[in-house]
Specification:
Elements: H1 2-38, E1 42-43, E2 53-59, E3 62-67, E4 81-82, E5 92-98, E6 101-106, H2 116-158, H3 165-207
Antiparallel strand pairs: 1-3, 2-3, 4-6, 5-6
Helix pairs in contact: 2-3
């Protein structure tokens, strides 16, 4: 009986070692995979790309993962271009919203020189557009400088306060941020209106031409102005 009990104890001990050995191997493998994954994490640009990633991890407000070796996204993120402003949307296809911005693939449009028949008209459209944008930039700079001066005066005055100093300082910053937001919104509005006017002017130029099949467009490459 003692020999039987001793034999059972030995068998149980050996079996336990084997089980713990397997568990340890699995844990090590998982840890290794996690460590390997975190060293090659890539930000996932949009929800539809999740299927191309493994080892998903949320870091802050973004989702990261390890790209699958065989992944073939329908649109490679490297080919996407940020659309500077709404007036350029019609020049892109396969548009996607990533974060707060619109991205897309620029349409391939054959370049056609602007002939002498409408070149003066197009030049006038460009001049009107840019003068309007220059005027807004100048006005925005003046408004921002005034907001900065007001913030400076407010903060310096707040230093003389005692019990309400923190509240007054916070109010100074709040007022400045509201002013800056208003300035940016006004600038975006002027930009949109200016580009709409510019496009209509170019259409009018094309309408007077006898040999220009498409509406001319001269890009300025500006994302802000």
């Amino acid at each position: 009986m003692k020999k039987t009990i001793s034999l059972l104890i030995v068998i149980f001990f050996v079996f336990s070692l084997a089980v713990f050995g397997v568990i340890g191997s699995v844990a090590n493998a998982e840890n290794s995979a996690n460590l390997t994954g975190t060293s090659s994490l890539e930000k996932i640009p949009s929800p539809e790309h999740i299927k191309y990633f493994n080892v998903l991890k949320k870091i802050g407000n973004a989702l990261f993962g390890v790209r699958k070796a065989t992944s073939t996204p329908d649109i490679a993120t490297s080919t996407l271009e940020k659309i500077g402003h709404p007036g350029l949307i019609n020049q892109f296809e396969k548009i996607k919203k990533i974060g707060n911005a619109l991205w897309g693939i620029r349409k391939k449009i054959a370049w056609a020189p602007i002939g002498s028949e409408i070149s003066a008209c197009v030049a006038t459209a460009i001049d009107v557009k840019d003068k309007a944008l220059i005027a807004r930039v100048t006005a925005a700079a003046t408004e921002l400088n005034a907001a900065l001066s007001a913030r400076s005066t407010c903060q310096q005055t707040a230093l003389t306060a005692t019990s309400t100093q923190r509240e007054v300082l916070n109010a100074c910053v709040k007022t400045f941020n509201e002013a800056r937001k208003a300035i940016n919104e006004a600038s975006k509005k002027v930009q949109q209106e200016t580009w709409n006017t510019y496009k209509e002017s170019l259409k009018a130029c094309q309408a007077t031409a006898s040999s220009t099949p498409a509406v001319p467009m001269v890009e300025d490459g500006g994302n802000i102005f």
